[in-house]
Design goal:
Length: 261
């Protein structure tokens, strides 16, 4: 699909897995939608904040592409997601993003996710950098949609290795059009791992913010391990750092904060 601004939107497995649809560039920025439901439930029984990762990465990322000067494609370097109100368990969410700054090297965007009443539930941002790739040459892998998933961990195929560790196989369903692990999937897996770590420590505070920095791409076929470390343990505020590791090399660093809204 091509917009008037000639940005090519390329759906791939993660969009189907998380129900992300109608990602459309337009005069008011990039828009996307996502349904909420039981399959996006986290380990604490709440709607997973990380489950919004693919939607947020898509709308803010395609806004980066729209804004970059003289470039055709981009890669996410940092994504922020801040919760403003508890996520609805069932609803239709709408996300929009707009450009704040761009050069021929990088761009910075901001966005919002609203529920069906129009109330803002999440604020988000992305910093992305330019790539020389031609999007018309990108061909997503063939993939199989999962059957009924009881929660987001099942949807991802995320395996628990211990209280503070999980692992994930980069299968075609989780790849972006460049045959790398989708940035939104990384966010989701990191947040789920942080929640699991908090619960193991006897803490049931809800996730309120998630920031992921991407240090290197994770190619198709890789096994990525997510390792959580508690950086602050308080009764009302909790901070967890989750690193993604492939072959002993750090691929992402996520900071997950939790507190009562």
């Amino acid at each position: 699909m091509t917009s008037a601004a000639s940005t090519t939107v390329i759906p791939s497995g993660p969009e189907d897995a998380f129900g992300v649809g109608a990602v459309v560039p337009g005069p008011r920025g990039v828009r996307g939608t996502m349904p909420m439901g039981p399959r996006y439930r986290g380990p604490d029984g709440r709607p997973s904040v990380g489950a919004l990762g693919v939607l947020v990465d898509d709308v803010t990322g395609y806004t980066v592409i729209e804004g970059l000067i003289g470039s055709s494609w981009s890669v996410s370097t940092e994504i922020w997601l801040d919760v403003l109100a508890p996520l609805p368990a069932t609803d239709a969410l709408v996300a929009r993003a707009r450009l704040l700054h761009a050069t021929n090297v990088s761009a910075f965007t901001e966005g919002w996710v609203r529920d069906s009443t129009g109330a803002m539930v999440v604020a988000c941002r992305q910093r992305g950098r330019a790539l020389a790739e031609d999007p018309t040459d990108l061909r997503p892998s063939s993939y199989e949609l999962p059957g009924a998933a009881e929660d987001v961990s099942t949807l991802l195929g995320l395996r628990t290795l211990g209280a503070d560790r999980t692992s994930l196989e980069v299968v075609p369903l989780l790849e972006n059009p460049r045959h790398m692990l989708h940035g939104g999937v990384t966010m989701c897996a990191a947040e789920v791992t942080a929640v699991q770590s908090r619960l193991a420590a006897g803490v049931d505070l809800p996730t309120t913010s998630l920031h992921t920095a991407y240090t290197r791409g994770v190619p198709a076929g890789s096994t990525i391990e997510f390792r959580a470390s508690t950086r602050h343990a308080g009764r009302t505020f909790w901070v967890t750092e989750v690193v993604g590791v492939v072959d002993d090399r750090i691929t992402s660093v996520s900071t997950v904060s939790a507190q009562v809204l």
